[in-house]
Design a protein that fits this description.
This protein has about 280 residues and is an alpha/beta fold. It has a single domain (about 10-120, about 185-275), classed as Alpha/Beta hydrolase fold, catalytic domain (Rossmann fold, 3-Layer(aba) Sandwich). Helix content is about 45%, strand content about 15%. The protein has helices at about 35-40, 65-80, 90-100, 125-135, 140-145, 155-165, 175-180, 190-205, 205-215, 235-240, 255-260, 260-275, and strands spanning about 10-15, 20-25, 45-50, 85-90, 105-115, 220-225, 245-250. Helix 2 (about 65-80) packs across helix 3 (about 90-100), helix 5 (about 140-145) packs across helix 6 (about 155-165) and helix 6 (about 155-165) crosses helix 7. This is Proline iminopeptidase. Pfam families: Abhydrolase_1. One of its GO terms (molecular function) is aminopeptidase activity.
């Protein structure tokens, strides 16, 4: 599909029923939510896409939150959706929230998976860094060496697999799960990552953002894994601000809770989406 400024985006649809549009994490990654689609596509019509500059989409900017919101709306229009549910993971959860705040009339429900709330990242990032290093364990030295230097594409993949392995509670299978995330390897867009993260540092955690969340008249389900290395209390700020919110915490699961508790994840999300009209 093409955006209004002529950038090609990869998108796909599966299943039948009420429409749900997924937004993957990152920024700068590609769609990693095919397993989630498999859990839900018997009940809803799932729309997935690679964000601008990422994965199978055209690798060009500009990269910003506003541009990401506009691209999400382009996906909506491409599939002819007047109204849709949204499911976002990690950075994608922030993106779906931003979209809902700007276009609440186009959003029927919002599933906010493994996000980090609306406070500034500095409030939780130190805890995250400490947990990240603890979970990488024996690979920490290699991860630090790769982080500190210019890397080849193969080294980018190795670096990401080590880092992503920290996101799983099931430590004996963490590298296996991370390898699956990196296969096929579509290459991280670090320029996109840096641009959007820098913008979020300036704009997240403001009184205006909290006030907007307090007025959001859209049902929201927050889902997070109890063992996510991003502290669960980081998302409390969002839960406390939203007027129509429920929350599910899946024990024994990390940052990708559908991987380690697929049945619990499916039950929570499909139940929430069951009332779509």
């Amino acid at each position: 599909m093409l955006t209004e400024d002529g950038v090609r985006l990869w998108a796909t649809r599966a299943g039948a029923g009420d429409p749900v549009v997924f937004c993957h994490g990152g920024p700068g990654l590609w769609d990693t939510l095919e397993e989630v689609s498999g859990l839900l596509a018997q009940r809803v019509s799932v729309h997935r896409w690679d964000q601008r500059g990422c994965g199978r989409s055209q690798r060009c900017g500009p990269y910003s939150v506003a541009r990401s919101v506009a691209d999400l709306d382009a996906v909506r229009r491409r599939f002819g959706l007047s109204r849709m549910a949204l499911l976002g993971h990690s950075w994608g959860a922030q993106l779906t929230l931003r979209y809902a705040l700007e276009h609440p009339e186009r959003v029927s429900r919002l599933v906010y998976v493994s996000g980090t709330g609306i406070d500034r990242g500095a409030s939780w990032h130190e805890v995250y860094e400490r947990n990240l290093r603890a979970n990488i364990r024996s690979g920490l030295g290699r991860w630090e060496a790769l982080k500190a230097r210019k890397r080849t594409d193969a080294e980018d993949r190795e670096f990401c697999v080590l880092q992503w392995s920290a996101d799983f509670a099931e430590r004996e299978r963490a590298l296996e799960h991370a390898e699956r995330m990196a296969t096929p390897w579509l290459g991280v867009n670090f320029e996109c990552n840096a641009a959007i993260n820098a913008e979020n540092k300036r704009t997240w955690g403001t009184p205006d953002l909290r006030a907007a969340c307090e007025k959001l008249d859209v049902p929201v389900l927050i889902v997070n894994g109890a063992e996510d290395i991003r502290p669960g209390w980081a998302v409390d700020s969002l839960e406390q601000a939203l007027p129509r919110v429920s929350r599910t915490v899946l024990s024994g699961a990390g940052h990708l809770p559908w991987v380690e508790d697929p049945e619990g994840f499916r039950a929570a999300v499909s139940g929430f989406l069951a009332d779509l009209q």
